[in-house]
Amino acid sequence: MTGILAVFNDVAGGATAEIEFNNWYNQQHLLERVGVPGFTTGYRYRAVDAHHRYFAWYETVWPTVMRSADYIDRLEDPTTWTARVMPGFTNMVRTVATRTLRAGEGTGAAAATFRIAAMSGTNTDFDSVAEELFADVLARDGVTSAEYWLADQDLSATDTTESRMRGGRDSTFDGLMMIQGMDTESLQVSVASVERSLIKQGLQLDGKAGIWQLLFTAHRG
Question: What tens digit of pLDDT does each residue of 81-137 get?
């Protein structure tokens, strides 16, 4: 199954630091990560309405790529630019997950994320309601795809040169449903009803949904 690395964060240091953060992410970091063997695509977003300012996620051929020697080498030997930017990451949520379900294709211009709490070690609870739930979500105007990520807490745990630069300890999520759409307006219209559908299906939400504008993507090769 496809691996996912998801990162949510804010940026400390004011407007100048945020400009450098975006230049670093677009010009070096996303491309560097997608260049690691096993990584295939990277995406980054800025919040329209969310608890964090930024959201990035990566697809990998397997979740265990995040334990590969090539990836760990990058975390243990950050570039000079990374070393300058990384301490400005705040309110960090970093989770390694498996994409267990997906409906719809392509990449939308915007995304909405729903963190789902108190999941067990399997995806049985979500699987049991996914068919009806995804059909309901994809029927909404402007929605192009829906997917579910099940966290792997063991793979998410990290203690590397790069993580220590951030200070503190990264938070994680248990599970996450993401929907993509043609624009943020379409997703904003759908969020409340999607949340009601999730709750109706007996799933517990962890905080408010996030609405995100796509900024940049990078593909291997």
Answer: 999 999 999 999 999 999 999 999 999 999 999 999 864 444 457 888 888 899 999
Per residue in 165-184, pLDDT tens?
998 889 999 999 999 999 99
DSSP assignment string, 62-107: SGGGGGSHHHHHHHHS--HHHHHHGGGEEEEEEEEEEEEEEEE-S-
What does the buried/exposed string (b/e) look like for 161-180 if buried means 16 or more CB atoms within 10 Å of the residue's CB?
ebbebbeeebebbbbbbbbb
> Which domains are present in the chain?
3-219 (3.30.70.100)
SS (H, E, C) 13-27: CHHHHHHHHHHHHHH
